[in-house]
Amino acid sequence: MGYLRGVVHGVIIGGAVALLYAPKPGRQMRDELSERLDQVRGQIQPVIDQAQGVVDSARPQVERGISKAQQQAQRITRRGSESTGSGSAYGGSVGMGTGSAPGPGV
Asked: Are the CB atoms for 37 and 9 separated by under 8 Å?
């Protein structure tokens, strides 16, 4: 959609610049600029309508996906908080380790 918007803006600006540099009286130039702008709007409107239709049809599916992701995140968060009841963030014991560590001279 961003590319299309850039193309539309480029056409409008290019048309306006071409008309501004054309050696015509001011009133005639404004009339032609207005006419060209109406033509561009007429050509672009079906594309905009189609893009809006795609967005409108995709919206419910995207909203369902977001809702599912939020529910899953809540379940994961609940499971995480239930499993860390011992006070440790990783679910293990806090304090001295039970493994052997190398001595100071090693």
From this structure: no
The pair of structure tokens assigned to 78 is 């609940």
The whole-angstrom separation of Cα 33 and Cα 13 is 10
What phi, psi does 41 have (nearest 5°)? -60, -45
**Helix (H) or strand (E) run with residue 23 in it:** none
Rounded-to-integer distance, Cα 15 and Cα 88, Å: 66
Residue 105 has phi, psi (to 5 degrees) of -85, -5
| DSSP code for 75 | H
Residue for token digits 């306006």? Answer: 16
Q: What is the pLDDT of residues 51-61, one digit of tens each?
A: 899 999 999 99
Q: Is the pTM of this model over 0.70?
A: no
